[in-house]
Design a protein that fits this description.
The complex is a heterodimer of chains A (513) and B (336). Chain A is of the alpha/beta class and 513 residues long. Chain A contains 18 helices and 22 strands. In chain A, the strands form five sheets. Chain A has a six-stranded mixed β-sheet with strand order 6-7-8-3-9-10, sandwiched between helices. Chain A has a six-stranded mixed β-sheet with strand order 16-19-20-13-21-22, sandwiched between helices. In chain A, helix 15 runs parallel beside helix 16. In chain A, 47% of the residues are buried. Chain B is mainly alpha-helical and 336 residues long. Chain B has a domain of 198 residues: ABC transporter involved in vitamin B12 uptake, BtuC (Orthogonal Bundle), CATH 1.10.3470. The N terminus of chain B is likely disordered. In chain B, a hairpin with a 2-residue loop joins strand 2 and strand 3. The chains are: A alpha/beta (513), B mainly alpha (336). The interface between A and B is medium-sized, with 28 and 22 residues.
């Protein structure tokens, strides 16, 4: 990174030399919680500043304050040496501050150009929209970002990564001085993320200040110059990237050490095979074969779009295969609906927790009971008491943090929501549990809990098929790694011998890493 | 009756007021839709009693209100179940008329026994609901379009079968809708049974609880082993059955199957259900809420009639109530 910022060292040394934005003693309370508690934070021109912390640490709230969405209860901000107190988002925009949200604020049916100039389309002398000028400007912006897209393409046809770049182009079209990105890579492929990092560095070269909110420490080290760590609404540390380590950052985030050492135990090849997938074709999966034994954690690694999720969906009855075999305990399974898979002893925690997993407006107890209606009812009648018992046991044994069992699951943290989903399946004592992205959007502390839960299940003899895009997680969790690439299972690795590079080599089409 | 309503309400209120502050009580009422409706119904009844002491607090008037609530009540139960599951049915008015005409034609023109015609009328509603359900769950056309189309088609088909209607239905067909028990006509009692059964079903049975999951998150429901399509299909069949029941009861009550029966009932029914706590986003609502929503709407309508407000105002008031109820629902969503 240093090569892009020849005088960054000097800038940092000579502080407080004109930060782009500084926030002093910011406090923001919501009913019942102090989300941001006396935070002082600054970002320099030309700097990429990462902001990390667990869910609920106050990152988002602080960013929303800077972007003019919320007003702080107390404290003040300075933008390029002048007092900055935006009335609303529009005022922040005018001051040159743009925020790119996780799910971009785009209009999918409209073209890229119309999105970028939404609400401020250039007009001709007749007062009509000047599409020609809009397209020309858009083309220039996209060229700057090295994106090969036609300005007239509807946004709905773009990949998540491309949409994010359109969002950034929109920010750039407005003379941005400070760009805030909130978890920008959560839906990007590896190459899209790399492209984004490159763009961010170019922006920094042009003296734009970038604040980068993320969960992924690896990215912090890849792209950021400095990092601020938040915990419980307070700043626990500001570090220069060159002077810190992942362990230190985790410690600052959670206040304790965590070990993600791989599990050295191996499941005997004598153990019975619970799941066997043979020559499975279910588009976009063109050929998949794998086995998971009782007590074994098999991680499916691969790039986004390799067909991992689709493979899992086929096993769970969400997709109908074209050909090939799925066997559970040696018996052929043709699930037409998840219920068929459940009856065969399979459970699945999907990757999109909020869309595919949770009933957000319903209680913790109702969420846990969802797949267990047979266990909590007799002759079709529901026993409310059994639902409560089941939920109480789950909350206790999985250490789910919730004020009460009737609380809507919407109000729980990402980690606790994930535990609720695990609890739903644990109650059924499945033979095979499929977990797609077990710790996406889960903070570091809860991550360790989820790992414990999965490892304990394996110890009890459950077969686990885990999909994860987080390579350190794959290495920590797996007894065996199966790599998929472009719809095919391309190889197996032993996590004790593998590393991130060897996984990526297998996963990348053409073998480049 | 009004005084007892207010009494039962006032007592718990006083009790709570001692433990809770008025603000807390107000917040609880605002959150708890059935409680809010009870309060609204009490206020409305009290106001009407004071303003129209001659006409409002009369057993005959209450019987009329409850009879008016009967048809809406039967329909709103079905609509509530669908809304909880995240869908709705705009074809119920046409289904109601169709079922009445089917029963009327069978008993008068074909000469079938009254009971057979009555049951056939109800089942014709079931069939319409099943067709709706099939189109929505199998052909994947959304509920709005499917049932809107069905509304138009069915109204036309009904007129095709019996251009103006079937008048002067035989004596034997009348008891279904005209029997008086404890001073109230049979449609009210039928409604009461439907409400109680549905209440029990929606709170206690595994099958009906599934609607809450489906309406709350369709994908997650399927992933939890709940067959969303199957349950939604049954929901529409139930709705059709209830519309059929309401239609045959109406024909029996009027001794007359009217082709234009039930025009605009979908508006009243959806309004009552939303008022009773259903959300357009699905996953919310209760049967007691639906019942109280119906009762409130019936009282409003009764009030308008007693106050001699021109009849077109009723439609305006219902529309405004629907908008207000949905507005409250939206605000609730936003605060989440």
């Amino acid at each position: 990174m240093q090569e892009f910022h020849p005088d960054f060292e000097g800038l940092a040394e000579s502080y407080p030399a004109a930060p782009r934005l500084s926030a002093h003693n910011i406090v923001k309370t919501f009913p019942g919680v102090t989300a941001v508690d006396d935070v002082t934070f600054e970002v320099l021109p030309g700097e990429i500043h990462a902001m990390v912390g667990e869910n609920g640490a106050g990152k988002s709230t602080l960013m929303h304050i800077i972007a003019g969405v919320y007003r702080p209860d107390s404290g003040h901000m300075m933008l390029d040496g002048r007092p900055y107190a935006p009335e609303d988002e529009k005022a922040a925009h005018r001051a040159g501050i743009a925020m790119v949200f996780q799910e971009g604020s785009l209009f999918p049916p409209l073209s890229i150009a119309e999105n970028i100039f939404a609400g401020r389309q250039p007009v001709t002398r007749l007062g009509l929209v000047d599409f020609e000028q809009m397209r020309r400007h858009t083309r220039e912006l996209l060229r700057d970002l090295e994106v090969d897209l036609e300005p007239s393409t509807p946004v709905i046809d773009l990949s998540p990564g491309q949409r994010q770049l359109v969002d950034i182009a929109k920010a750039l079209s407005q003379q941005v001085r400070l760009l805030i990105l909130d978890e920008p890579t959560s839906s990007l492929t590896i190459s899209e993320a790399r492209h984004l990092f490159k763009i961010l560095r170019q922006l920094a070269q042009r003296d734009v200040a970038v604040v980068y909110v993320t969960h992924r420490l690896a990215e912090v080290f890849e792209v950021a110059d400095r990092v601020t760590v938040l915990k419980d609404g307070k700043v626990t540390g500001v570090r220069r990237i060159a002077e810190t380590t992942a362990d230190e950052l985790i410690h600052l985030e959670v206040g304790r050490e965590l070990s993600f050492a791989p599990d050295p135990t191996r499941v005997s090849t004598e153990a019975p095979v619970v799941l066997e997938v043979e020559d499975l074709v279910v588009p976009p999966v063109t050929h998949a074969s794998l086995k998971v034994r009782a007590g074994e954690i098999v991680c499916l690694a691969g790039l986004v779009g390799a067909g991992r999720t689709e493979l899992c969906q086929a096993i769970f009855g969400l997709r109908q295969r074209v050909s090939g075999h799925i066997r559970i305990d040696g018996v052929e399974l043709t699930p037409r609906h998840p219920l068929d898979a459940m009856r065969a002893g399979i459970g699945m925690v999907p990757e999109d927790r909020r869309e595919g997993g949770l009933f957000l407006g319903m209680s913790v107890a109702a969420n846990i009971a969802a797949a267990n209606m047979d266990l909590v009812s007799r002759r079709g009648l529901i026993a409310e008491r059994q639902i409560e018992q089941l939920a109480a046991q789950s909350v206790e044994s999985l250490r789910i943090v919730t004020p009460d069992l009737g609380r809507e699951v919407l109000y729980l943290s990402g980690g606790n929501q994930q535990k609720v989903l695990l609890a739903r399946w644990l109650a059924r004592q499945p033979k095979l549990l499929i977990v797609d992205e077990p710790t996406r959007g889960v903070d570091v502390g809860a991550k360790a809990d989820v790992y414990d839960i999965l490892r304990n299940l394996a110890k009890k003899g459950v077969a686990l098929l885990v999909v994860s895009s987080d390579l350190p997680e794959v290495l920590a969790l797996a007894h065996r790694i199966v790599v998929m690439s472009e719809g095919r299972t391309v190889g197996e690795l032993d996590p004790l011998e593998a590393d991130e590079v060897s996984i990526l080599q297998l996963a990348t089409p053409g073998g480049v890493a | 009756m009004t005084s007892t309503l207010e009494d039962t309400l006032a007592k718990p209120e006083k009790k709570r007021a001692r433990e809770w502050s008025p603000q807390k009580l107000a917040a609880r009422i605002a959150r708890d839709r059935p409680l809010m409706l009870i309060v609204l119904i009490a206020i409305l009844s009290g106001w009407m009693t004071i303003s129209y002491p001659e006409s409002f607090p009369h057993p005959a008037n209450f019987a009329a209100v409850l009879l008016d609530a009967a048809q809406s009540g039967i329909l709103t139960v079905g609509m509530m179940i669908l809304l909880v599951g995240g869908v709705f049915d705009l074809s119920i008015g046409s289904t109601l008329a169709f079922a009445g005409i089917v029963a009327g034609t069978l008993v008068k023109e074909i000469g079938l026994p009254p009971l057979v015609a009555f049951v056939a009328g109800i089942l014709s509603g079931t069939a319409i609901g099943a067709i709706n359900g099939f189109i929505i769950t199998r052909l994947r056309i959304n509920a709005l379009i499917t049932t809107l189309a069905m509304q138009g088609i069915l109204r036309g088909v009904t007129q095709l079968i019996a251009s103006a209607g079937v008048a002067n239905l035989p004596e034997g067909f009348k008891p279904f809708g005209q029997t008086v028990f404890l001073g109230l006509q049979s449609p009210f009692w039928v409604m009461l049974v439907v409400v109680l059964l549905a209440w029990f079903g929606m709170t206690r049975t595994r099958f009906f609880r599934q609607f809450y999951y489906i309406g709350s998150n369709r994908r997650a429901a399927d992933l939890s082993g709940i067959k969303g399509d199957q349950v939604t299909f049954v929901g529409f069949a139930i709705m059709g059955t209830l519309a059929g029941l309401a239609g045959t009861l109406l024909a029996s009550r009027l001794s007359n199957a009217v082709v234009l029966a039930g025009v605009g009932t979908e508006l009243r029914t959806i309004t009552a259900a939303i008022l009773g706590g259903a959300s357009l986003f699905g996953g919310a609502g209760t049967i007691p809420g639906a019942f109280l929503g119906v009762l409130f709407m019936a009282l409003v309508q009764n009030g308008l009639i007693i106050a001699r407000v021109p009849v077109f105002w009723q439609s305006i008031v219902i529309g405004v109530v629907l908008l207000v109820a949905i507005g409250v629902d939206q605000l609730g969503q936003r605060s989440k």
